[in-house]
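Hello K.,

You asked for the raw outputs rather than the summary table, so here they are, unedited. I folded two proteins back to back in the same session to keep the settings identical. This is the first:
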Amino acid sequence: MYAIFKKELSSFFNSAIGYLVIGLFLGVMGLFLWVFEGAFNIPNTGFADLAPFFQLAPWFFIFLIPAITMRSFSEEKKAGTLELLLTRPITTTQLVLGKYLGALVVIIFTLILTLIYVSVLYKMGNPEGNLDVGVTVGSYIGLFFLGALFTAIGIFTSSLTTSQIFAFITAVFICFTLYIGFEGIASLGELSNLSRTLSEIGIKAHYDNISRGVIDTRDLIYFISFTGFFLFLTVYSIRSNRVALS
């Protein structure tokens, strides 16, 4: 599994596309937070508060993470190297986890780079350091679990096809639907009796809870369960390929 994990990391960071994806995320996010006029411009709010970042980040993740994961299995299938991987003395679960953890480390690395925003706001506070550390830490924990779930979704869609574009579009659709789709359906007047239940099926309600600095085990169980579910689907998908080869 470690060899797969190492290969996944090196293939990403040895590619200009990897740096381009991360650079675009940080660059565009920085423009929204510090340059562009609007509701997400931090200096215009007059508060040393990272709330705009944590509101924007999930929407960027919906596109960023599928862009990172779309090649995980799709590229292997297209190049015909998946068959070679499946003949190695590793289990399907180890193969999937190696790919998953490799992509997840890239997401964690990207989140670490955003800590520069925390540093800037810490200095901007009046007095210096006037930053709600509890909410900030909770929001980063929420982003980590959100990223972990989106990564599992992206790995799963990549295991279904040889087309990276199809894997990307499918992952974006699933991530978008799970993040905001159920909440949108819950807001319909005709479904007012089911609104709370539908909202809790979606990701956003659980992400918002953690982002307030309240770590509820129900929210953690939600993220862990859904992440495990999509990893299970990925293992099943790859195992089907292994059976077809035997």
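The second followed immediately with the same parameters:
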Amino acid sequence: MERPADGEGVTWRRLPLLAFGAVALVAGLASGLSRLGALPPLAPLAHGPLMVSGFLGTVIALERAVAARAAWAFVAPAACGAGGALFLAGQAGA
């Protein structure tokens, strides 16, 4: 299988997964800053799960899925991203 040249390919399909990671990163950083007292209390206990599972899990799994070049490999970053989003949604009322 030939590799597409730079600038070609289906990178737009990866953007929603990357967006999950970006949202988890921003929320994790905000909750970390709230733990330090720099921001009002948002969800201070959400920092660890959002950073590890939501951000790192999504981004690292996405990197591995792109390297694997298989459609089934994108299930892992989708699951990590959805888990981070669901965790964040559950913390909204806290």
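Residues 15-36 form the longest helix (22 residues).

Happy to rerun anything if the numbers look odd on your end.

Regards,
P.
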